[in-house]
Amino acid sequence: MKRLPLQPWMRDEAVASVMAALGEARFVGGAVRDTLVGRPVADIDIATPLTPDQTMAALTAAGLKYAPTGVEHGTVTAISGGRGFEVTTLRRDVETDGRRAVVAFTPDWAEDAQRRDFRLNALYLDAEGNLYDPVGGGIEDALAGRVIFVGDARTRIREDYLRALRFFRFWAWYGRGEPDADAVAAITDLKDGIAGLSGERVSKELLKLLAAPEPRPAVALAYRTGVLAVALPEATEFQRFDEGMVDIDPDPLLRLASLLPSLEDGLRVAERLRLSNAQRERLRAVLAEGEPLEVDLNAAALRRRLYAWGAAAYIDRVKMAWAADGDERWADLLKAAEDYVRPVLPVGGADAKMAGLAPGPGMGQALKAVEAWWIEQDFKPGRAEVLEKLRALAG
Q1: Domains detected in the chain
Q2: What's the confidence (pLDDT) of residue 300?
Q3: 220-254 burial string, b = 16+ CB within 10 Å, else e?
Q4: What is the DSSP code (8-state) at residue 29?
Q5: Percent of the chain scored above 90 by pLDDT?
Q6: Which pTM does this prediction carry?
Q7: 271, 283 in Cβ contact below 8 A?
């Protein structure tokens, strides 16, 4: 059995309190894998042979709070030190349909390991640093940068077609060398099953893939296997993605936008993948048509675009333009957004009313006309000048 030195995150009081409360419990998945390969640990998941009821009772007895976040699937979130830790009962699949599984609880660590997706994710680590690899090959896979399914690849994918997408995500983050041939063949044959998955699950995997430091080989492989045509058929702007955006910005949503040819495609993707309202609006802003953005625009024109779009959308659109043509001068245009404070039109509805305009469409049109003039003057006229212009329009 391999033994790892106790890590700082394992000695953390909040973590240690949960482990002590549960008795026989082991860390599982990402925290174990990342520790093994020397990467920072983000999420800490815990596996236990205790049933959910027993888990909640043990946490209560130790003076810890919990949230029953997924009891039907065996998951309770332990709360310690103001942080949440997912604690899941060991499970085996009773029934699967390619999208979700019916599970039964088990005290058998090997059974729990057999239902996991990849060997490098079926690793367990106890509080003393003992590392367990029940399916075999997981330790070697993690160290060598291999992503290999637990058992038969086709069986694992048919249990949950999301695993076909997860393969590309994990290969982007952890893979080195050539991808596993059996996995690629199985994914190619079974890719159509991805179409039956919920948009939320697909978008989560795609965005995690695109957030990888170097996602291009995995995206290219997803294209060659036909998976991208099923999961993201709108993606056609590969040059803008490959030769530009990946090197410009690590933001996964901006990288997604760089793959899409139009606003119409962006809105279709946002709807199908059930993106959040904030993500949807960001795609709308970055892919919107309208005033052109050119690398040689003068400072006044850039200020007008900053005012019209807002700093965040301006930055996104500059980066998209930079990704499209590779002109390094776009980096200079980003400086225009540094410390940008949007100017405020120095008149409003009360001023328009004082000028003799009645509330309604006419007042709105007059204020818009005054704002357009003020913008054309490069936002320089002060309140007195703008009021004078408003009165002239009202008269």
Answers
A1: 1-144 (3.30.460.10), 151-233 (1.10.3090.10), 299-337 (no CATH), 349-394 (no CATH)
A2: 93
A3: ebbeebebbebbbebbebeebbbebbbebbebbbb
A4: T
A5: 86
A6: 0.90
A7: no
What is the identity of the amino acid at 240?
Answer: R
The one-letter amino acid code at 8 reads P
Secondary structure of 278-328 in HEC code, one letter for each residue: HHHHHHHHHHCCCCCCCCCCCHHHHHHHHHHHCHHHHHHHHHHHHHHHCCC
Could you give the CA distance from residue 110 to residue 94 in angstroms, rounded to a whole number? 15
Place of tokens 């990288």: 255
Read off the pLDDT of residues 217-264 as tens digits, 9 standing for 90 and up: 999 999 999 999 999 999 999 999 999 999 999 999 999 999 999 999
Q: Which backbone phi and psi does 77 adopt, to 5 degrees?
A: -95, 110
Contacts of 370 (CB under 8 A, 6+ apart): 345, 347, 386, 389, 390, 393
3-state secondary structure of 7: coil
